[in-house]
């Protein structure tokens, strides 16, 4: 009897809470460090990015309108679901050449980071906000508000911890995200999208597009409905003209630190609003 061949899975994009195929029909072959075939992954196009931004925009007001405490509960639920799939994430890191103990530690750090940021949802406003002294019968408050739709370019290394460390603070502040994950380790982002889909995160809050960063970045930076872009994982040789496109539509561009556990990283994706209010008699 002939040996049976395994049915190979093609991993899809994550847009609006669903898993569509790429509009272009293109895929990328993912191989292990030993050169063995691992999976086919969808290769996102410009049309897919537009769909992801549209989904993120539709979900943004509802996500920002939730109470800070409820957002914290939802992010904690992501950590709970991810905890149940620790072995899967560790195995995928192993295919990328990460040593077993280091893979297990990175997964644990990523889960702990979700918990850490979940706890900041109803607290960071008190750290970064202020009550300003004024010479008059008024209160003057400065409070953080979400920027809106945020593009997150995740670093290639560490692929899982780097993705979580830049995505989680964006969600804490009430933003929605369009994520371009690591090209070298896209399966980790796909697995994270499956975690998000089976947790309490509303559809469209997180959208993940696997594919070449050099193809997707110009359209992400140039899209007028994207309010900010995190270039932490952008290529070092990124063409400066691509950044000029973001400047023409007054888009905030930031670069963060991988694994940075600080409430200040949440402000990378916030606008500070000052409000005057008369003192009651």
Give keywords.
281 residues; alpha/beta; five-stranded parallel beta sheet; three-stranded mixed beta sheet
What's this entry about, in short?
The chain is α/β, with parallel strands linked by helices and 281 residues long.
What is the makeup of the main sheet?
5 strands, parallel
**CATH H-level homologous superfamily name:** Aldehyde Dehydrogenase, Chain A, domain 1
Query: Structurally, how many domains make up the residues?
Result: 1
List segments where confidence is low: pLDDT < 50 over at least 5 consecutive residues.
Answer: none
> Would you tell me the overall average pLDDT?
90
CATH architecture: 3-Layer(aba) Sandwich
Per DSSP E runs of 2 or more residues, the count of β-strands stands at 11
Q: What fraction of the residues are assigned to beta strands by DSSP?
A: 15-25%
Alpha-beta classification: alpha/beta
* Helix/strand order, N-terminal first: EEEHHHHHEEEHEHEHEHEE
CATH class: Alpha Beta
What oligomeric state best describes the polypeptide chains here? single chain
The Rg value, from CA coordinates, equals 20 Å
């Amino acid at each position: 009897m002939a040996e049976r061949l395994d049915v190979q899975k093609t991993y899809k994009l994550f847009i609006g809470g669903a898993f569509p195929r790429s509009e272009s029909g293109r895929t990328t072959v993912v191989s292990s460090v030993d050169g063995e075939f691992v999976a086919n992954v969808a290769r996102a196009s410009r049309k897919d990015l537009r769909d992801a931004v549209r989904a993120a925009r539709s979900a943004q007001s509802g996500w920002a309108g939730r109470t800070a405490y409820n957002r914290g509960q939802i992010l904690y639920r992501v950590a709970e679901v991810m905890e149940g799939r620790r072995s899967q994430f560790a195995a995928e890191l192993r295919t990328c050449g990460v040593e077993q103990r280091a893979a297990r530690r990175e997964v644990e750090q990523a889960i702990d980071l979700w918990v850490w940021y979940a706890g900041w949802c109803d607290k960071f406003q008190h750290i970064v906000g202020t009550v300003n002294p004024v010479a008059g019968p008024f209160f003057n408050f400065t409070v953080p508000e979400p920027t809106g739709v945020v593009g997150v370019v995740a670093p290639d290394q560490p692929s899982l911890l780097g993705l979580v460390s830049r995505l989680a603070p964006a969600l804490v502040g009430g933003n929605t995200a369009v994520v371009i994950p690591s090209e070298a380790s896209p399966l980790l982002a796909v697995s994270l999208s499956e975690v998000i889909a089976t947790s309490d995160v509303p559809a469209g809050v997180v959208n993940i597009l696997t594919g070449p960063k050099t193809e997707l970045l110009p359209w992400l930076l140039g899209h007028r409905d994207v309010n900010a872009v995190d270039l932490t994982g952008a290529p070092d040789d990124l063409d400066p003209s691509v950044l000029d496109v973001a400047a023409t539509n007054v888009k905030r561009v930031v670069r963060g630190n991988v694994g940075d556990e600080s409430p200040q990283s949440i402000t990378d994706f916030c606008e500070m609003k000052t409000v005057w209010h008369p003192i009651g008699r």
